Records
---
Amino acid sequence: MKSPLTGILPVAPTPFLDDGNIDVEGMKNVIDCLIDQGVDAICILANYSEQFVISDEERALLTKVSLDHCAGRVPVIVTISHFSTRIAIERAKYAQSLGASMLMMMPPYHGVGLVPAAEGIYEHFAAVSDAVDIPIMIQDAPLSGVTLPVPLLVRMAREIENVSYFKMETPFAADKLAQLIAEGGDHIVGPFDGEEAVTLLADLDAGCTGTMTSGMFPEKIRPIVTSYLAGDQEAALEHWKLCMPLINHENRQCGLRACKTVYKAGGVIKSDHVRHPLKPMSQRTTDRLLHLAEELDLIALRWGK
């Protein structure tokens, strides 16, 4: 990438068929649908891609299919999180060899009782950075149960060559983003927020320059970021008000299932299957989701029709 990445970098859902097998053609449709929504980049194999129910062989297949099909139309960020530093390095090298523009990693964890000390976390990211020459985004999310203090993040940004992007999803993310930007200075190339953009306006006030949402409706969320960064905070606020009911429903009621349900309704994918032990949404939650989505006339709801 020749310039810093900003804007909206949604997570691509991983489509399965009703029998639970990977839907390769559906994955290609997902990539196309996201690009048609005007995204600035696409992230694959993240938590909202159900990375925790995907085998290593499937992960390799999805990486190749996604990067080949995207074919450089937008940057692709490949999530490579793993507790094992060795496996994370292997994933990183493979992703870069296929043309990934960036890597995303959570800190190493395996339950709250098996978390390395700060130095081990630092060494984990440093080892991956030494193995590649593309940017690395650190995902700071409550899911890991790992505390990443700002001084540790700043140290990694300053000392580890490829660590320059950060996705903040912790409680009070805006305050942490503001402190990270203030203390890290020019070493913080891409301060991003996540969590389906539920805190986006506050995070923009704190200095973030982009967001990593689900892939459900980036075409509606992106103008919040672009308007704000262009200096039009009133326009950003109006876009925020328009999107907030659906953002809130997705974040608080649906989780990763929302995007797949909307994509199925719009013919992007054949099935909204989620692998066990995840369960489908209730009909009540689905009905409200689709009603809110229809009110916004989402591209994904008509993309495949």
Note: The chain is about 45% helix and 10% strand.
---
Amino acid sequence: MQRISFLFLVIMISFSPIFAEEKPSPPGPPKEGYYILTYKNYGVNLEINVNGYDVRDGSSNEDSSGQADINYWIQPDKNKIKIRLTERKSKQKENTGLSKEAEVKLYIGQKGQFPDEGILLEHFQWPTSTKSSLGEWTEIELNPPFIPPSQLWKQAEAITLTKEKETSILEFAKEFTKILNTKEAKKILSWIQFRAKDTSEVRYYPYIEADELKSIAGMTKAIGSSWKLDTKNLKFTLVCNNQIVSVTNQKGEPILTSKKGAAIPLYLSWIGGQWVIVR
């Protein structure tokens, strides 16, 4: 037995350098999470656009910093993030001595994390590392390591805007306004159910119909039957590979508002031969 034990010990010693060289494989890219943009701008106006959706529209003349969850707007295949910096309007040009700078970062974060604790995917910094001139768009093409769960991209057809399509959108919006003013939670939910289910999936939380009805009931109690539709000077904008149409006024503002100051943006898709509220 002693001879066998000795031989076993010699064999283990001879193989120990091989075992020591083995290293664990680095973790692969995440398979789920939240795509989060963080931004800040000083002395210049900042616009951020993701697949046609305006995260920031550049109209504010104020310095700012913030973050935006863009899971709703990440689509299969290639995604485009566009960034533009522009000069401040005349009132703001007095502060010419202050530095002008802007920064945009894209992270993948997990539940419970701060954005900067996530994985950094893209980094735009002006003027330090980005040579873009003021007024020019910088386009970042993103091939995401995963797509947030969503039924929308599987079901929504590509939209071609025509006069007939725009008229049918307007009729849909008028009917939806009537439904909102009924204050009947179940009727209202039937019109926004796709959105409620899909955005729950995108955000990784369960869809619970009772909670949705409770939320709608609270909204109708607070706002009542004061919803009004602005049908003048409508603007139809295709976003996300033409699978969603945004309906606003010419200023980009919601056309469905209430006397209480509330507003509902309209993002529609063509699914199964009809318009559906999706975002």
Note: The radius of gyration is 26 Å.
---
Amino acid sequence: MADLQVAPWTLVIPVKRTAIAKSRLAPAYPQHRPELARAFAVDTTAAALRSPLVHTVLVVTDDPQVGPDVTAAGARVVPDLPAAGLNEALLHGATVAAAEFPGNGIAALSADLPALRPAELTAVLAVCTAARSFVVDEPGTGTTLLAAAPGVPLDPRFGVGSALAHQASGAVPIEVAGIESVRRDVDTAADLAHAVQLGVGPATAEVLSLVLGAATGTEGLAC
């Protein structure tokens, strides 16, 4: 790996209540959509914690099941006190991170990266040398990671067209080859199929095994 003599990172991962998360997966996975959303968050968190550049992972969530799961993986849960949406949750998490770890950079990371590889995340964080940097998602319009150097406001602008919004705000797009797992967030069944090709984490694989069992008639009705 290139230069690792950079400030360690505190990652902020926002997780919506899984009962309402990943609605675009519902047509393909009506029975297992909440479990998949929870598994994505757990696999993302566990992979992020294995990066040598990640000091701490703060998961901003009010989901009663995600909290214990990511805590068991080694993350710390920050309650979503604003309860006002994604960017507000990230701002809250970034405020906590800056107060507790002022020497660290802060990176907002999508919770929907079930194929995330620690080495690829490390490669990204190692080149986040601008004041603010971001990774464009696989479709090319969204953002999977937004990083701010120590002392720099995160200023998240997630939502539709967030890649352009982040670039317009002065953040620099990361241009690194071989970071497919960092770019592959999952919103649809097609996205999940691509993530499976890359290799998903154990929590997601376990839920997908239940889906397969259901589809073959070994677990009641098919998904």
Note: Helices lie at 33-49, 66-73, 86-100, 118-126, 162-168, 180-183, 189-198, 202-215.
---
Amino acid sequence: MSERERAVILVSGGMDSATAVYEAIDRGYEPYFLHTSYGQNTAAKELECARALAEDVDAADFLHVETEHLAAIGASSLTDDEMAVEDADLDSDGIPSSYVPFRNANLLSMAVSYAEANDCSAIFIGAHSEDFSGYPDCRPDFFEAFQQVIDIGTKPETDIELVAPFVEWSKTDIAERGLELGVPYEHTWSCYQDDSPACGTCDACAFRLQAFQNLGERDPIEYAERPSYADR
């Protein structure tokens, strides 16, 4: 039997990246986890979840990188104590205060280095349509451009595909696929504000709760409150 192809997966500890892990495995890849702590409010909880997920799938490797420069740069409510985490506004078309300037380019750059060093043929990221409505570095055009950066900036014999499998999907679509794949969502965390229990009112909690509510499923993590966000 031939050796499985390897994939670096950006694993934040959240439900989208956890689903991306199971999607990559379902496609036949051996998972190499890359988790970064960048000074976000729930960094310790996210690392705990990422490690639990790595254990669940028997990941080939787990690389944890501190990217404190993103917190030092600031200008995001995820990293700057002077900025409040906003309550959910699911209909907003603006860029939310939780946007970390050019974060995905930073993370993907590390993922490319990690992938090239470990002969990985793919990088998976769990970004999706509700992300790119607010975050410019989650747009399909961004990933297409970054693929060009990978192709030009790596060794001639290196061939790494950047895979964003959910980029045109809603959060509900992702949750539905994850439940189908058996993703242990109890080992994921999405809250921008608190690390136990989840607040239930920030954007990340709202989109997550809405996805489970749309599917008639109960989100297995603990919340301080569970408002109704269902849209169908």
Note: The chain has a mean pLDDT of 87.
